[in-house]
Amino acid sequence: MTEAPVEEQKLSSGLPGLDTMLDGGFNRGRVVLVLGEPGTGKTIICSQFLHHGAAALGENSMFIGMNEPKSRFMKEMNNLGMDFAKLEAQGKFMYIDATEVRKIPEMAKVGRIAVGGRELGLVNLLETIQSAIAKFEPMRIALDSMADLVFRFPSVEERRPVVLDMIETLQSTSATSLLTSELLSTGEERVLQPEEYLAEGVMLMRTLRKGVRTVQILKMRGSKVDTHPRPYVITGKGIEVLATEEVY
């Protein structure tokens, strides 16, 4: 007798319209890539995901910032009604400032031994993340942005193991993780990025002509999803996905 497949547990994204597209939310414990052009709101959507978990559901949430210091993140999100400082004081939120990894030179020294600075930076970053996760035990994680790490590894051959190491680190936890990256090319014949192959889900955020913004779920393993591009708007309270509207 064939056993029925185990139904995946859902985790609300914090955006009702996006949850509609996701058939109830993200699958728990998965790593999802949020891919998009600059200015599409990738950081905002990750922040809403974390804030909803911590503020509404009491779930420990962690933000790993690769391109902006904690103070700027806190201020920008507070302007959108997300008080992460309050959540941090309550022990429900942790910010990992990983901006220093960008400043490590191409070559560094351990004692008197010269080593590859970028590889050393990656190892230090992974160890920092693993240690913080072990202590804080987050249920939700966002890393923003993978592009700030992989730009130091220009070839695809170099970049793929870096992406794999990061994704495996996040997969080794029981947390649901959002990982952002920059969209490097557009169009039907665009070259897929290593992150897209390795992540278990991929969401594409784009700005079309006349400023229309769309979100599209390219893949989401273990879940029936709406794969049509749907419009969204960025308001003073964050992102609102218009899940029942068409894009023309």
Describe the 3D structure.
The chain has 248 residues and is α/β, with parallel strands linked by helices. The protein has one domain: P-loop containing nucleotide triphosphate hydrolases (Rossmann fold, 3-Layer(aba) Sandwich). The chain has helices at residues 16-21, 42-57, 70-78, 84-89, 117-136, 147-150, 156-171, 194-198; strands spanning 10-11, 26-27, 31-36, 61-65, 93-97, 107-110, 113-116, 140-144, 176-182, 201-207, 213-220, 230-235, 238-241. The strands form 3 sheets. Strands 5-4-8-9-3-10-11-12-13 form a 9-stranded mixed sheet, with helices on both faces. A hairpin with a 2-residue loop joins strand 6 and strand 7. The termini are far apart.
Outline of this structure?
The chain is of the alpha/beta class and 248 residues long.
Residues in helices, as a percent range: 25-40%
What is the CATH architecture descriptor? 3-Layer(aba) Sandwich
Structural class: alpha/beta
Q: Rough shape?
A: globular
Arithmetic mean pLDDT:
88
Q: Within the CATH hierarchy, at the fold level, what is the topology? A: Rossmann fold
Number of helices: 8
Placed side by side, the strands forming the largest sheet appear as 5-4-8-9-3-10-11-12-13
The total of beta strands comes to 13
Find the CATH superfamily.
P-loop containing nucleotide triphosphate hydrolases
Count of separate structural domains: 1
Span between termini: 48 Å
Using the coordinates above, name the CATH class: Alpha Beta
Could you tell me the strand content as a percent range? 25-35%
Q: How much is the radius of gyration in Å? A: 18 Å
- Point out poorly predicted stretches: 1-5, 107-115
Q: Can you summarize the main beta sheet? A: 9 strands, mixed
N-to-C order of helices and strands: EHEEHEHHEEEHEHHEHEEEE
